[in-house]
Design brief:
This protein has about 400 residues and is of the alpha+beta class. It contains 6 helices and 24 strands. It folds into 4 domains: about 50 residues, no CATH class; about 90 residues, conserved putative lor/sdh protein from methanococcus maripaludis s2 fold, CATH 2.40.420; about 100 residues, Efflux pump adaptor protein, beta barrel domain (Elongation Factor Tu (Ef-tu), domain 3, Beta Barrel), CATH 2.40.30.170; about 80 residues, Orthogonal Bundle (Helix Hairpins). The strands form 5 sheets. Strands 1, 18, 19, 20, 23 and 24 form a 6-stranded mixed β-sheet that branches. Strands 3-12-15-14-13-16 form a 6-stranded antiparallel barrel. The protein starts with a helix and ends with a helix. Belongs to the membrane fusion protein (MFP) (TC 8.A.1) family.
């Protein structure tokens, strides 16, 4: 209110007599009270207009997030199974004749070659039997020579009619029996020589030999059980079960690409989580199905020059189920899901978060492949997503690209 208006109010107050009272109008006291209130309000307004405006509250800083640069890499779709290592050749050594162990000619765990003598059973008694059978053969041969001579003389006498035909027939039969005796003695000699050879237990395959179950001096026989075991080392098999459904899907996939199932690559993960240095290929699919699990056993052959894979151990098996293809990898923590599907938040050129719908592929450790929706180099928010709304400005931490090591 201006000074002129304020003076007018005061003048009006003075012009009204104190004793004057107009019927139906407020009294002088009431008028004064209303005027006082009006003056106070006017002064308050004037005082408020003269004060400077208060400073506005400071704006909140943009939320801090961690972003990853999307990177295109070549990935291979794989299926994972649990398998068991099996030696290509596995031989259990057993005694084939009875006798006392005379020698053990190997060190447990050593590599052996085909033909190496590993155990020696006392051969003395078997050598004696061989000599006896050799004598039997010599006697049978002498008897046969005598029978032949008798038959020849009888035939000469028969031409002179100095011997009966019946006697000549007997001489012919004796000669035939003598020849049969030679064959019988020779067979007995062969059996004795085999028994003698069985006193030398040799390595039928190359590989590494395990623990000896019996020591020198023990009596062994075919019923004594396994004396030791030889397993081949390089190459080596890995066997793993696959369900019928997985097998059918894999066959259709390979045939649709015109490939050969034997060319499917197989890699192995060792018990400590590391990948085996050498890869192999499928070489056999079992001809029967396990009725209990409805699975089929597949086998892959892998090189094993260092003996890392050991017969009987469990390993992880990864089978390449598709051709290598290029895809963009991002952390799985960047994925978000709503009613419309899967999406990620990216950072645009104005440092604002924006929704981007994506189609995902196979996982690779903590990362996942994005088949559609992202371009290489775009910044994807991987941490701090819960603090961000689409369209909101954000402050990204230093960008860390996906590396080959992280992808595997």
């Amino acid at each position: 209110m201006s000074t002129h208006a304020f003076d007018s109010v005061l003048q009006a107050r003075r012009s009204v007599p104190a004793s004057c009272s107009i019927p139906g109008q407020p009294s002088k006291r009431r008028v004064w009270t209303a005027a006082s209130i009006l003056i106070v309000m006017t002064l308050a307004l004037l005082a408020g207009c003269g004060r400077p405006e208060q400073a506005a509250a400071p704006a909140m800083p943009p939320p801090a997030v961690t972003a990853v640069a999307a990177k295109s890499q070549t990935i291979e779709e794989t299926a994972q199974f649990v398998g068991r290592v099996a030696a290509v050749n596995r031989v259990e050594l057993r005694a084939r004749v009875e006798g006392f162990l005379k020698e053990r000619r190997f060190t447990e765990g050593q590599a052996v070659a085909v033909g190496d003598v590993l155990f020696l059973i006392e051969p003395d008694q078997y050598e004696a039997i061989v000599e006896q059978r050799q004598a039997d053969v010599a006697k049978a041969q002498a008897d046969s020579q005598n029978a032949d001579a008798q038959l020849k003389r009888g035939l000469e006498l028969l031409t002179q009619k100095n011997i009966a035909q019946a006697k000549v027939d007997e001489l012919q039969a004796a000669a035939s029996v003598a020849k049969a005796s030679i064959a019988q003695a020779q067979a007995a000699l062969t059996a004795a020589q085999l028994d003698l050879s069985y006193t030398r237990i040799i390595a039928p395959v190359a590989g590494r030999i395990g623990l000896a179950q019996l020591t020198v001096g023990n009596l062994v026989s075919p019923s004594s059980g396994v004396l030791a075991t030889i397993v081949s080392r390089d190459p080596i098999y890995v066997q793993f079960p696959v369900t019928q459904r997985e097998l059918l899907d894999a066959r259709r996939d390979v045939q649709s690409r015109g490939g050969d199932p034997k060319d499917v690559a197989v890699t192995v993960r060792l018990p400590d989580g590391t990948l085996y240095d050498h890869s192999g290929h499928l070489d056999f699919v079992d001809v029967t199905t396990d009725q209990g699990t409805d699975s089929v056993t597949l086998r892959a052959a892998l090189p094993n020059p260092d003996g890392t894979l050991i017969d009987g151990q469990y390993v992880g098996v990864m089978v390449q189920s598709g051709e290598p293809e290029s895809a963009i990898l991002i952390p799985q923590s960047a994925l978000q899901v709503d009613q419309q599907g899967v999406y990620v938040l990216i950072i645009d050129a104005d440092s604002k978060a924006q929704i981007r719908r994506v189609e995902t592929g196979p996982t690779k450790g903590s990362n996942i492949a994005v088949m559609k929706g992202l371009k290489e180099g775009e910044l994807v928010i991987s941490e701090g997503i819960q603090k961000v709304r689409p369209g909101q400005a954000v402050k990204a931490a230093p960008v860390t690209p996906i590396t080959e090591g992280a992808a595997s």
